[in-house]
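Figure 6 in text form: structure in, sequence out.
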């Protein structure tokens, strides 16, 4: 396969990912299907809340997951795109399926913790959540999961399996590592507000920086220290 064809296919896949992320962000900016219920002081239907969480996770996570997805596509193209290497969308499906599972848990937690406001009002509860998230940022599990997310080439070469089951498994594993890396940060949406777009953008930027910039693991640790300090301040006020 010529280099021109390879480049064209990578651009198509990159454009598709960018469009998917852009549509998810547009959905959030437009109220995520729950804005009218919040304005009326009532909780949205659970299905609407689940969809909101899933598309919010897609909007926040796809930019930082793009290197692994594009690398999978490149490997597939370089190997001729035969039947032993499944289409890139199967890898992406596995990845998004794990975030759907996380969204199911998050939407259920939202029902229990926040009600229609979609934000934790109790200062003590906010402080505990901030400290817990900060401690997790400093934990070995966070470091291990972040390392997998920051090294997509090593991850793909180590976990590669042929066929569509292998691609689906690869996507599920990558989603699992991303959740292991970011779940505590995602739960901070309950602190700043699930529908607070500035807070959503800030958390998405932290996630992307941790995974993509040089020495991002140090940013994760600094974020952890800052969250612990913030949480202690909440507990003391």
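Output sequence:
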């Amino acid at each position: 396969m010529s280099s021109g064809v390879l480049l064209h296919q990578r651009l198509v896949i990159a454009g598709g990912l960018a469009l998917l992320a852009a549509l998810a962000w547009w959905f959030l900016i437009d109220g995520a299907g729950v804005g009218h219920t919040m304005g009326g002081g009532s909780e949205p239907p659970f299905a609407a809340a689940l969809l909101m969480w899933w598309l919010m996770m897609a909007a926040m996570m796809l930019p930082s997951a793009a290197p692994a997805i594009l690398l999978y596509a490149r490997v597939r193209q370089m190997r001729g795109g035969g039947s032993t290497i499944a289409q890139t969308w199967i890898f992406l499906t596995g990845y998004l399926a794990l975030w759907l599972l996380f969204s199911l848990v998050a939407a259920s937690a939202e029902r229990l913790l926040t009600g229609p406001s979609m934000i934790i009002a109790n200062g003590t509860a906010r402080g505990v959540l901030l400290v817990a998230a900060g401690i997790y940022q400093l934990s070995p599990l966070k470091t291990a999961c972040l390392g997998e997310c920051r090294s997509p080439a090593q991850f793909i070469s180590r976990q590669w399996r042929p066929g569509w089951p292998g691609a689906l498994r690869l996507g599920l594993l990558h989603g699992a590592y991303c959740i292991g890396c970011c779940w505590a940060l995602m739960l901070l949406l309950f602190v700043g507000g699930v529908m607070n777009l500035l807070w959503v953008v800030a958390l998405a930027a932290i996630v992307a920086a941790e995974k993509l910039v040089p020495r991002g693991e140090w940013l994760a640790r600094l974020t952890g220290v800052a969250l612990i300090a913030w949480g202690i301040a909440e507990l003391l006020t």
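Caption detail: The mean pLDDT is 86.
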